[in-house]
Design brief:
By secondary structure, the chain is mostly beta strands. About 10% of the residues lie in helices and about 45% in strands.
Length: about 260
């Protein structure tokens, strides 16, 4: 087992032991109880894509592409005093013309490129069940994180999702693993491995900081040029709200400013 698998398993062992006995576990009356929550869903999605006449794909797979996606998500959360734990497990099955098309274009894209993987993420929490021609299946952990909260601070480590900024079609400040603009299902953003912190000021403003650790997908090594470090301040000016962003993202320095008309 490689170190990428070993580290997250060490983090999960205490949680797994608690989960196994959750149904029968209770503290004495003079102790603090842990609140557990379980949930999940199953989704089926059909996608039909028409290929333009001038596309290279038209000569490979006709004038359209079809995909059948099935995803099941199991959610587990636990909270005790100021600590909380979250884990989402996914089972994904895909039957897609795109998989076969990508396999026929060596050097341009890799087989299974339209199925999520952890090649760039710090921890490899995805296991491929199989991939052949138009079919692919995998199981993965999309959320695994532990957090600590006080009245004014939040610190959270592990695989999680964060969205910054607001927008109708495009959110410029949402730089961490943003949704594809053409995505149909936007209920859950895919999680990334990060350290997140937030500090709430007395006037209602807050300061947030994020460090996202990523690997070079070619070498597999953690590199600063592949990772992100960002600070964001959310403040108020009269009846208006604004966000200021400073970040080093994939080796490039970024500054951003956005605001809202009213609140």
């Amino acid at each position: 087992m490689c170190i990428r698998h070993l580290i997250p398993l060490c983090l999960l062992l205490p949680a797994a032991s608690c989960w196994a006995g959750a149904s029968a576990w209770a503290y004495d009356q003079d102790r603090i109880a842990t609140d557990w929550s379980f949930g999940g869903h199953t989704k089926y999605q059909y996608i039909h894509t028409r290929i333009p006449d001038n596309s290279i794909l038209r000569g490979i797979d006709g004038d359209s592409l079809q995909a059948h996606n099935l995803e099941a998500r199991l959610k587990v959360t636990a909270r005790r005093e100021r600590l909380d734990f979250e884990m989402h497990a996914q089972i994904i099955a895909v039957h897609s013309d795109t998989l076969a098309v990508f396999s026929s274009l060596p050097g341009l894209v890799t087989p299974g490129a339209d199925v999520i993987n952890d090649d760039r993420r710090w921890f490899d929490l995805t296991h491929e069940l199989g991939s052949h021609n138009k079919n692919a299946g995998l199981v993965r952990l999309d959320r695994v994180n532990i957090g600590y909260m006080t009245d004014k601070t939040v610190v959270r480590f592990g695989r999680q999702a964060i969205s910054w900024g607001n927008g109708l079609l495009f959110t410029p400040m949402d730089i961490f693993n943003p949704f594809d603009p053409a995505a149909v299902d936007k209920e859950y953003k895919s999680g990334d491995d990060m350290l997140y912190g937030q500090f709430l000021l007395d006037n209602g403003s807050d300061l947030q900081a994020v460090t996202v650790v990523r690997r070079n997908p070619v070498s597999g090594d953690v590199e600063q040029g592949q990772s992100s470090l960002a600070l964001k301040y959310h403040g108020f000016w009269g009846r208006h709200e604004y966000d200021m962003l400073a970040a080093e993202h994939f080796g490039e320095f970024m500054l951003g400013l956005a605001g809202s008309v009213d609140r």
